[in-house]
Amino acid sequence: MVLKEENSKKSIELFLSIGLDERTANNTVNNNKVTSNLTAVIHEADVTDGCDRTTGNLLYSVATKYPANALVHRPILLKYIVTSKIKTPAQLEAAISFFTNTGAEDFKLNEFEEACGVGIEVSPEDIEKAVKEIFEENKKTILEQRYRTNVGELFGHVRKSLPWADPKIVKKLIDEKMFELLGERTTADNEKPTKKKEKKEKPAKVEEKKAAVEATPEPSEEELNPYSIFPQPEQNFMVHTEVFFSDGSVLRCSNTKEVVDKHLKVTGGKVYTRFPPEPNGYLHIGHAKAMFVDFGLAKERGGCCYLRYDDTNPEAEKKEYINHIEEIVNWMGWEPFKITYTSDYFQELYDLAVELIRRGHAYVDHQTGEEIKEYREKKMNSPWRDRPIEESLKLFDEMKRGMIEEGKATLRMKQDMQSDNFNMYDLIAYRIKFTPHPHAGDKWCIYPSYDYAHCTVDSLENITHSLCTLEFETRRASYYWLLHSLDLYMPYVWEYSRLNVTNTVMSKRKLNYIVTNNYVDGWDDPRLLTLAGLRRRGVSATAINAFVRGIGITRSDGSMIHVSRLEHHIREELNKTAPRTMVVLNPLKVVITNLELDKVMELDAKRWPDAQNDDPSAFYKVPFSRVVYIEQSDFRMKDSKDYYGLAPGKSVLLRYAFPIKCTNVVLADDNETVREIHVEYDPEKKSKPKGVLHWVAESSTGKEPIKVEVRLFEKLFNSENPAELNDDWLTDINPNSKVVVSGAYAVSTLKDAAVGDRFQFERLGYYAVDKDSEPGKLVFNRTVTLRDSYGKDNRCQNALCHMGI
């Protein structure tokens, strides 16, 4: 033990001599692999007597990032660093990239120098000139967007023209130029920018065109396997992230070899992921993407995925939501390796919080919520931040035992109140809530926060890949800071873009509001993009997963996926799986005057469009009698060239039956409303009319067809992005998003349809049997129309316009 401490002391002294700050040096000796690498690099570079801080930081980067397959060339790189031929992070990054590609093979020195910008001097004047030119080119945009301008893009333009420029000087000059052009920031500059609407894409056609298929380019590796971007568990010793502190020090977080070896022994080298929903609402289509990422990666690698309920807030959680989540995960086709709850680890989390206090990394605070907010805005430390450790331990114990009132104390992590990352502003680890827990009962009156519990339980469950959406990216520093502070195993964290779909809301707060205030008919309302709502609407898990896979696991944030893209995948699935049938939504009586009164023919109708004549199961029987019904929208008093419906004196074909010709029209008393029409049919089928109509007939004289209720759903919100309307988002709800047709007629074979059965109503769309169905009263939900009307100038505003396609 004494020898180990002596070696650590010598390593720290060595690391301090090359300009590392004390915190980084101390953190480094806790990582045996980095310590060994950095010591070797310092000796190879022959700077055991010390060097300047700039050189030292570059050497540190070599120790943590240099490729193992090119160690034979490392002395050459170190020589270039200590002689200041490579002196910027950009040059070093290029050098490491060069050797990663070269490996142990021989290389030409001139090619190496060219790749790394050796000998190229970029003066401040050169940088100033480049910055000026970039600002001139982008002046109009900068003046429009002001401080919302993407400075990173400006920085990128400069780096593109001057790749070896000092990034600190570039950043300084850009900031100065921004201030010179725009002046002080205004209140409006600090407001959240409005997202631009995605350019409308052309709707995908249902019909498959051979030429289009042949023209499809070869898919990339990522398209074939979207999980190929993720590293293997045994690679989990690399530096995960760098946490920059306000005092200039840097915490480089990584696992030691011993920690990784211990982790791999527990997991057997398998991938371990987790799907961690909060049980405070129903899952929506965004969660379908999360499941695809979490469960999908584990399945693809032969690993395990936990279903973990993130149940740290007892006030918002319900057993209803817990049951729903488990059921819907299974419906989506995923099988959890194990179902756990964050509350399963409440004791371990509490013990680790006590250890965090003992190490000086947490303290009990008495500020109110408003005071915490104010102090964070001002980057000020809490008055209780530096209280003695023993005092915080005593108070935290009193919090646990219920001796302190709710709202009078919290446990906060001692991070960095002056950091540029607001997620390092001494986040709350525990708060007092005298509320029984749905899963843990009344044992606890203090509950951990998401920021404290999430990463800790990831570590306790030996998660290899902690995958989440991009809004959590700024929490990465806090995530690793906490695990590092407790010497816990660190999972690999990767963020992907969240799924945003047009004409809906996916905020749980907003969803909960419209559900509880009866703007919709519950969490499974078919107008919602909750997974329960989509299922009730008739959408299959297969279609949802195909949609999510098609989007991919990208990091491009802020994009809005048009709902027509989802509908395309729904149609593709239903076109293959939904049998055809006939339903008339708004019936118009048609009397076939040349057909005997009592005559009923049994005709064959196709369940599938490509049915073979020798396959009886591909057909169903429909009665054809003297009285049939067609859609009201399929008849006009005045004909036109572009109209293929029925009109006086005109012929149409009744699908699977005979041509009919209108011979007479019976009007109501108002002399305008058509009450019924009289036709003659062509039993020999000699006429060949262009128009083809669907229909339903009486099964016997005077016996009306089966009556069903049909619910026609449209987009719930008129705007593509209702969230942009801020407080006015509720005014954007589409009043015609649900139209109920109560008197539709259906063919008799539908009488035995069960809840969840899906059909294509010919010429109308795809429909599913709703759970509100009762014996003798079937209810159908429209899943999707046959074709997408998006992008057409003459889009129907009323749902009924889609009935007469």
From TrEMBL:
Any matching Pfam family: tRNA-synt_1c
Residue span of region Disordered: 185-224
Glutamyl/glutaminyl-tRNA synthetase class Ib catalytic domain segment(s): 270-575
Regions crossing the membrane: none
GO molecular function, one term: glutamine-tRNA ligase activity
Basic and acidic residues: compositionally biased ranges: 200-212
Lineage: Eukaryota, Viridiplantae, Streptophyta, Embryophyta, Tracheophyta
Protein name: glutamine--tRNA ligase
Span of domain Glutaminyl-tRNA synthetase class Ib non-specific RNA-binding: 10-167, 170-247
Keyword field: Aminoacyl-tRNA synthetase, ATP-binding, Ligase, Nucleotide-binding, Protein biosynthesis
Glutamyl/glutaminyl-tRNA synthetase class Ib anti-codon binding domain location: 578-682
Family, per entry: Belongs to the class-I aminoacyl-tRNA synthetase family.
InterPro entries: aa-tRNA-synth_I_CS (IPR001412), Gln-tRNA-synth (IPR004514), Gln-tRNA-synth_Ib_RNA-bd_2 (IPR007638), Gln-tRNA-synth_Ib_RNA-bd_N (IPR007639), Gln-tRNA-synth_Ib_RNA-bd_N_1 (IPR042558), Gln-tRNA-synth_Ib_RNA-bd_N_2 (IPR042559), Gln/Glu-tRNA_Ligase (IPR050132), Glu/Gln-tRNA-synth (IPR000924)
